[in-house]
Amino acid sequence: MKKTIFALTVAASIGLAACSNPGDEVVVSTSVGDITQEEFYNSMKDIAGDQLLQQVVVEQILNDKYKVTDEEIEEELKGVKEQYGESYEAVLAQSNLTEETLKTNIRFTLLQEKALKDVEVTDEEIEKYYNQASQELNARHILVEDEETAKEIKAKLDAGEDFAKLAKEFSTDPGSGAKGGDLGWFTVGTMVPEFNDAAYALEIDEISEPVQSEHGFHIIQVTEKRDVKDYGKLEDKKEEIRESIAATKADWNTKMAELIKEADVKVKDKDLKDAFSGIKAE
């Protein structure tokens, strides 16, 4: 379990849900005056209203859709204790947590993990991944900043100019440019997704059209392909591949937006009406 569990807000314990009907009942009494439920509720809204409401609502949704057992929590807690060893109690104290509140944080983290794994992965995606992962590619590329330059270089290649020479002249990739664009052997997931899919779609010696990625525009040529030794059959790898694909799709902000949209959340407190306005599902 990652260290972030020590930083989580324990929404289930202190959330706005506990003050859902604030009134005049006294929460705390002091020599200088009382603090009522309504005053406490309003203070909580001022301090962390939107963020706390989001967490309370998301936790409620997660509790409805997914289950975390005591055994799972204890197993994660055991891992935390092993990770910190003799420093465990000190880390709890520094984080202003008791072991019970740490368990609450662990529970919420496990709920998040279950939600992130709950993504659709199609048979077509699994087969595509398998076909790619069962092969390694040897390729080279020319990387440039803009599409116009990429098209000009592609035209030169189509006219028969030397790939390596053009890579040395034009490529902005500091690692491969000086080597004629050579990237060596690689397998699925090594490159950014756009590059990966374009490369695996090429036949040997075929040169791609310009491919845009976060790095710029690539012109790719696959020079060799080889099977991955003992990779296994599709039916044996299916679940492993499904988990790998699901992990690449895992994005908590996106998942949270989907969950909130499905739950049809309506905020009745006008002071908190914009709490979910910035959370949009695609």
TrEMBL record:
Q: What is its main location?
A: membrane
Reaction catalysed? [protein]-peptidylproline (omega=180) = [protein]-peptidylproline (omega=0)
Q: Which residues form the PpiC domain?
A: 134-224
Report the family membership. Belongs to the PrsA family.
PANTHER family attached to this UniProt entry: FOLDASE PROTEIN PRSA (PTHR47245:SF1), PEPTIDYLPROLYL ISOMERASE (PTHR47245)
Q: What's a single GO MF annotation on this record?
A: peptidyl-prolyl cis-trans isomerase activity
Fetch the PROSITE patterns from UniProt: PPIC_PPIASE_1 (PS01096), PPIC_PPIASE_2 (PS50198), PROKAR_LIPOPROTEIN (PS51257)
The record's GO CC annotations read: plasma membrane
The signal peptide annotation in the UniProt record is: none
Domain of life (superkingdom): Bacteria
The entry's function note states:
Plays a major role in protein secretion by helping the post-translocational extracellular folding of several secreted proteins.
Cross-referenced InterPro entries, in alphabetical order? Foldase_PrsA, PPIase_dom_sf, PPIase_PpiC, PPIase_PpiC_CS, PrsA_foldase, Trigger_fac_C_sf, Trigger_fact/SurA_dom_sf
- Name of the protein described by the UniProt record: Foldase protein PrsA
Q: Which GO terms describe its biological process?
A: protein folding; protein transport
Its record classes its membrane topology as: Lipid-anchor
Q: Which UniProt keywords apply?
A: Cell membrane, Isomerase, Lipoprotein, Membrane, Palmitate, Rotamase, Signal
Subcellular localization: Cell membrane
Q: Which EC class is the enzyme in?
A: isomerase
Enzyme Commission number(s)? 5.2.1.8
